[in-house]
Amino acid sequence: MRAAVGTVRPVAAHSHHHVRTHDGIDWSSRLNALRQADELDADARRVVARRIVRPLPDHPTVLDVGCGAGGMAVALVEALSARGGGTVVLVDATPELLDAATTAARTAAAYEGDTAKAAVKVRPVLADLVTERPVDLAGPVQLVWASNVVHHLPDQRAAVAGLVEAIAPGGWLALAEGGLEGKFLPWDLGVGEPGLQDRLAAARAHWFALMRENTEGSVRMPGGWNTVLAELGMLDVTAFSFLVDHPAPAKQAVRDWAVERLRWHHEVAGHLLHPDDRRTTRRLLDPQDPAYLGLRDDVFLLMASTVHLGRRP
């Protein structure tokens, strides 16, 4: 989910081979998990999309950087359709994700259920934000949306500066970074030691710190996101958070997401857990085990994400 070229190539023509980005993650293998999360976040993202496009001029161009599987792209297309149309430029470094996002966004853009809906153009760009300047890919734009992408880039402050550079005067940056770690397990699962969720979160945080350290050219942040936006000359710097809340007993899609989420935790940070917790995790991931997460009624999803906003003078 990071951002090849200002020239737009037909998305279907990309050669699909598994590529690891600067963070060492094979994002194409994460496509299914990203789609699952998009489905569960959809309602919350619609509200966010309407909120961030509200101050924009007519027929704006919106840049969705690190578009992933396209969940926010769909929400942005719907929000722009409802206010007369515009253009959504999708940027990602992983061809499989860009394909998925483009298909989802174009499907949403072609929605004709209401004749009042205006067309929204969707333009995909395969690009790596470490080597490409966003302003060359799409700029100047009226809004940049970047969700959980900057923290995967070596120099986060420089990456934000590049996003700001792509914004037209008076335009907005919406940077979704941080919030509250998602919870999905009850404190006591009845198997293993209670408090597994907290230990998983600690292991994942440790893994994340190592991922940042091991990213080539990694530069530490000088402080919080609002500080960086202010230093880069942005005005009206503020933030808001949104909640994704699917309480137990949850629909099967939430359980499937939880299984995938736990599997991801186990893959990247399982080696940092106590052997007893690793055993418990394997039980929760085993469809033949009575403790299998995918069949439990006490699985839920509760997560808060923070969006940092700033306006370019």
Automatic annotation (TrEMBL):
<keyword id="KW-0489">Methyltransferase</keyword>
<keyword id="KW-0808">Transferase</keyword>
<dbReference type="InterPro" id="IPR029063">
    <property type="entry name" value="SAM-dependent_MTases_sf"/>
</dbReference>
<dbReference type="GO" id="GO:0032259">
    <property type="term" value="P:methylation"/>
</dbReference>
<dbReference type="GO" id="GO:0008168">
    <property type="term" value="F:methyltransferase activity"/>
</dbReference>
<protein>
    <submittedName>
        <fullName>Class I SAM-dependent methyltransferase</fullName>
    </submittedName>
</protein>
<feature type="domain" description="Methyltransferase type 12">
    <location>
        <begin position="63"/>
        <end position="173"/>
    </location>
</feature>
<dbReference type="InterPro" id="IPR013217">
    <property type="entry name" value="Methyltransf_12"/>
</dbReference>
<dbReference type="Pfam" id="PF08242">
    <property type="entry name" value="Methyltransf_12"/>
</dbReference>
